[in-house]
């Protein structure tokens, strides 16, 4: 009977949703960074409480979102500094 009842994992769903939003909105770093950090936090919390793969996927998408946004932000900063020098 216990195996038939599945635990719902709201943290995993929230984490995955925020991770996907952070990847899609990576060009807007001011949206991507907070959503990525929240995706990672909710993913960790969901993984500890429910031990589900949805939470793991949310953490991974959050990490990818932070990485993409960081690369784009560094690239924009580099362009800004180059324009200041020349």
| Structural classification | mainly alpha
Radius of gyration over alpha carbons?
17 Å
Query: What is the tally of helical segments?
Result: 3
Low-confidence stretches: none
Oligomer: single chain
Gross geometry: rod-shaped
Task: Please tell me the total number of domains.
Answer: 1
Helices and strands, in order, run as: HHH
Arithmetic mean of pLDDT: 90
Please report the total strand number as a whole number.
Answer: 0
Q: N- to C-terminal separation?
A: 71 Å
Proportion of strand residues: under 5%
Describe the largest sheet: none
Helix content: over 70%
Summarize the topology.
Layout: H1 10-24, H2 29-50, H3 53-85
Features:
3 helices; 86 residues; mainly alpha
How would you describe the overall organization of this protein?
It is a single chain. By secondary structure, the protein is mainly alpha-helical. It has one domain. The chain has helices at residues 10-24, 29-50, 53-85.
């Amino acid at each position: 009977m216990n195996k038939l009842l599945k635990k719902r994992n709201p943290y995993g769903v929230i984490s995955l949703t925020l991770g996907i939003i952070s990847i899609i909105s990576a060009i807007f770093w001011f949206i991507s960074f907070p959503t990525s950090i929240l995706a990672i936090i909710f993913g960790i919390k969901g993984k500890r409480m429910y031990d589900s793969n949805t939470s793991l996927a949310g953490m991974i998408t959050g990490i990818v979102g932070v990485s993409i946004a960081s690369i784009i932000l560094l690239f924009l900063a580099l362009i800004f500094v180059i324009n200041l020098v020349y």
